[in-house]
Amino acid sequence: MDKWDVIIVGAGYGGLCTGALLANKGKKVLVLEKGNSIGGLAASVNYAGQILDDGAHIPLLVGHIEGVFSDLGIPFPEYTLVNKCEFYHENQWTDIKNIFPFELYKKALDAMLQLTPEEITKLDDLPLNEWVNTISDDPSIHKLFFYFGCVTSVGNRYNTYSAGEMLYILKEVIESGRVMSETGGVVKGGMNSLLQPLADFIENHGGEVKLNTPVESVEIKDGRAIGVNIETGSRLFHSQVLDIINVKAESVIVTLPLWDIFSVLDEADFPNWWTDWINWLGNKVGHVWNVMYSVDEPPFDTNMFRFVESMPRTGYAAIFFSMPTYGDEVNQNQFHICYQGHYDEYPDLFNRKNAGVRKKTREILALMEQESLELFPQVKNAYNWRVAHAAIYSITQSPGFVGYKRPSMKLPGVSNIYLVSSNVREARGIGIAAVAKCSQLAVSDIISK
């Protein structure tokens, strides 16, 4: 293969955002993806006439992912805002505005906006509920910040969420010009509508996106990555050791989640303190479990989230919403029940080969459905199909695991490898927006050299 300016491991958001931005700067980019489609953890498929994402993806628009599209000069996909919220409050669904007095909301907002970046950083290791107690003794303020937490966090309970992390994200939302009810929405056509234009841009600007091409390892010599190794030949047996070929590059970007980076990076190339840290941190994750239903009629407005702070059987926080436009082709709608949890509350999904883990996973999903459909009985006997989903989302946003407690996108002792994902400190934020921000920073650093 030819020598490339940059090789990117993974064709998810991190790989495609970074690759497209680099291609736009004239760099010759090769993106290598082990799967048979782009998207990684955010892949979309067509199922029974509907768009089906790998889990529930509600992109947060605060300027980063939209900024990538703007920089590339390509249109941002059609986006449906979900701008209404209701709580299950005193055994009924209640508009969020009827639970929190405006004066309380304003007091909380003023307290957040007065904080400097340095003050927010000092709150990284403080649980959110403890900081909230310093604002007001009104019990409803905790429901307000539970809502804020649901908007800005995935996989965390209210009392296990870092105050600094939430305040950083909320300030970013506010400074982007959006109000809190305008932070989430649905991309028409699914996540692939965001991903495919980026892949096309790379290939239309001298780059290449290769599927079904797993990277065996990143080759490092004298403190620099010199390229990647790719297996070659046909695999006849599971235990077979294939030959490899080396593909040269000036820089390498790894977009795998933190818990998976040593599948392509050799721990021996890095200091022990760093590899021990990564291996420890990589297991501290947030979970998102959901069940997706195809229904002819949505159980409530399609531009609304519904929240339950603690479900009666599992005790987990739950979010309910529809995915408007996903079923337009067959004149159907998609309804989701979504649970968020902490790494110490759910089965160890890193160990899915264990029969006990799989059994516990099914038991939790069954309880999720039972208690959720009691709230929405119209769905219980009327759905066309269902797909259950149990996933690890990202490193937890709890005290002790955010900000400078996360690794940098730059690796110690190696000058030209970058980590681009939502798991590094430069990506502070949530989901796709955080990844896009990290992509922009990595590209800036590469171009500056």
Question: Helix count, per DSSP?
Answer: 12
Please describe the biggest sheet, giving its number of strands, its sense, and whether it closes into a barrel: 7 strands, mixed
State the low-pLDDT regions, or none: none
CATH topology of the largest domain: FAD/NAD(P)-binding domain
CA distance, first residue to last residue: 24 Å
The share of residues in extended strands comes to 25-35%
Question: What gross morphology would you assign?
Answer: globular
> What is the helical fraction, as a range of percent?
25-40%
* SSE order, one letter for each helix or strand: EHEEEHEEEHHHHHEHEEEEHEEEEHHEEH
Q: What is the level-2 CATH architecture name of the largest domain? A: 3-Layer(bba) Sandwich
Alpha carbon gyration radius: 22 Å
CATH superfamily of the largest domain: FAD/NAD(P)-binding domain
- Write down the domain tally: 3
| Helix-strand makeup class | alpha/beta
* Main CATH class of the largest domain: Alpha Beta
User: What is the strand tally?
Assistant: 18
The pLDDT mean sits at 91
Core attributes:
449 residues; 12 helices; 3 domains; seven-stranded mixed sheet; FAD/NAD(P)-binding domain; 25% strand; 18 strands; globular; alpha/beta
